[in-house]
Amino acid sequence: MEDPDRLLQTVKEIPYVISALTQTPPSIQQRTIETYFLPNASFAHPFARVGSSSNSRWLIWMVYRWYKIMSPRIDLTVNSVAFDQTTLRLYVDISQVFRLWIVPFYAAHVNLVTVIDLVYDPKRRLYFVQSQHDLYQVNEWVKFIWPGGWLVLLLWQYYNTFLSVIGAILLSPISWYEENILC
Fold this sequence. Notes:
The protein is of the alpha+beta class and 183 residues long. The protein is built from 6 helices and 6 strands; from the N terminus they run H-H-E-E-H-E-E-E-E-H-H-H. The chain has helices at 4-22, 26-36, 56-70, 138-145, 149-170, 172-182; strands at residues 37-45, 48-50, 75-84, 89-98, 108-121, 126-135. It has a 6-stranded mixed sheet with strand order 2-1-6-5-4-3. The N and C termini lie far apart (47 Å). The model has no long low-confidence stretch (mean pLDDT 90).
């Protein structure tokens, strides 16, 4: 049986863990990953993926090291943490400012939701990260690779909303048919 007190402590630790992964020197990053991640943990991000394997925790550390090399100073805020106790899944709402050192005057202000699947070890009475998935809306991750691209995507989204309205109005007989004939 899971320990509810330890679970509450785990949820409270998440902002610290995320800060240690993204805002600390490599030795602390490594220690954090070795402390909180399973040896065969997996990781998914729009620009990197580590599948579950016997060496995957080391690969996750390499991804985080590269992240810090590309952006030595990351401003990051954990806005909220939600926990689904049935599935042992954490949902973490994060805001960050990512600066590439090779592009000194550009900073990507992005929001994401990180989904973390946990596993409980009853012998040690601890929870460990089994997988981490960083989920970005398209208009957020494009900020990493195309300064100003978010504006093009925003306009594209509004344009597609307009097309949706036109399509829904012009093809409303299909909806009428579904409501009145098929049901």
